[in-house]
Design goal:
The protein is an alpha+beta fold and 132 residues long. The protein contains seven helices and three strands. A three-stranded antiparallel sheet has the order 1-3-2.
């Protein structure tokens, strides 16, 4: 069971990682988030109001350097069909360290292939360990 601050932060973190950081990395000026997409990504039940509140919060706007462009959806403002569009305020803001690290995924693939594969390389290294 989530406490509200933990759930709200988890929602904001997931929105930042899955929507905001990729948009920044692509150099986009705006980003749109559909509340229902986050509800499904986080496998939340009956928490749509929490998702909408987190996406509307000043904390989220400040953390991600965003400004509201528009909100579309039912008048209640608490639906999986709510569409939040934000303007990225500082295009020079870089993706977080995790996003930078994630771009390195697979960088050693060709090198390990030349060495006979990652497991083969590790086995050879281990067999020679301590035989100095």
């Amino acid at each position: 069971m989530y406490s509200m601050s933990t759930l709200a932060q988890e929602i904001r973190d997931r929105a930042r990682a899955d929507y905001i950081e990729p948009a920044v990395a692509r150099g986009e000026a705006t980003v749109t988030i559909l509340a229902g997409d986050l509800v499904r990504l986080l496998a939340l039940q009956n928490r749509t109001p929490a998702v909408c509140s987190a996406l509307r919060s000043k904390i989220f706007l400040r953390q991600c350097h965003l400004e509201f462009e528009s909100q579309e959806g039912p008048s209640s403002g608490m639906s999986t069909t709510m569409r939040f569009t934000y303007r990225l305020l500082d295009s020079s803001v870089k993706a977080t360290n995790f996003a930078r690290f994630d771009r390195l995924r697979g960088i050693g693939k060709a090198t390990f292939r030349q060495l006979g594969g990652g497991e083969t390389f590790i086995e050879e290294e281990r067999s020679g360990f301590g035989n100095v």
